[in-house]
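quick one before i forget lol
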Amino acid sequence: MLQNLKIALLTKDQNVWFIRAEKGRYAKHFRAGGVIAIEHLERAYDENIPSELPTEEFLKARLLSNEKYSEFRDNTDGKESRKLNRSGFNVLNQIKRFANEIRCGDLIVTRNEKDDGYSFGICSETIPYIDHAPIRVPITKKDGTPGFERSTLTYKLRKRVVWGPSISRSELPGAVRKATSGQQTVTCLNNHKEKIFHLIYPFFTDGESLFFSNKIKTNHRVNALAIGKLFQNVALIKGLSEALLGEGAFDINQLSGLIESAILLGKSDIVTCQAEFMSPGDMWCRIPLVGDTLANQLFACVLACLLLTGQVNSTEIANLTNNEATPTLAIKNDSSDIFLDRYKTPAISQKLKSIAKSAGSQAEKIENSESQEHTIIEVKKSLNLNVTKVDTQKLENFEFGINVLEIGRSHENP
């Protein structure tokens, strides 16, 4: 769990887009061609589509000449003139949004056809292009020879995308499923950005908070007592992380007192949650980051999250510092970005080592306490509690990909 665990860096200027692929019919073509594409240029031009994207004025004039997309309306001077109707405005606006608003680094989501899942990619080129060559999906025929699927993608207005993982539709929260069930081809999902990132990363941060999610995998009725205990454990994450940072004593048995104090005092720096208990379901947590060095806080909070949800034990934490090893929390794709500068730490950080040792000590206390072992481990078993495990390598390994912090180990010089 801890080896090479990733914390994604969430930037404010990164948008999330859902691109409809004809009910998933062309999702495989998107992945095969490394693109997203829309049909709206074909709607504006019945034939003879140009080799370059026309200006907005030219597109509008083209749509006005088509009775399907325009109609005569009275002007204020009493004369009639042709105006775009609702369909015409939709075609024009979808072309403009696709061409102008989807940018390098934006997260792209599209629905697959057969498995009813969703694919995730990163836009790798802001400038749209027109390509008249159809995209075909390569297959291996029954006799072992290479070939192509019958269907082809002929939409000519395209943008380049690096495609990564796919997940089942059942993993999507209800709000995201609803947002992707409309009719628009290009839909902005920024209002659901955090929940989208929860689908592919167990941890991510915007520099002000750490976001952590638990997946409730049980297919049975959810145990209300187990849910209550889970919330109680999660409420302790901030307190435990502060104890790890300060290397001080932390009595996990003071659970109720700490929770009541936080509620009564109306603290603003407490852990908050959202949840969907649908069996399976999800719980999403937000832990505020204030005070200490950002990288140290993130490391301590991650260990606290995993400890209090039963995802790691003392042995796993001890492995971070075994054989003179020192934990590291490093930016995968280093850059001069001001946002990323806040996460930079020395190659070998003794503070991270002391945090890991403190976490190992707390883990031993939990494991040696019958009541806490039952509270944490049994809650995990009852709810079949897991964290997101998705292979996101392809979303990260290029210039405009998602940047991540990775937990690893370095060996100290003798």
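fyi The CA atoms of residues 319 and 325 lie 8 Å apart.
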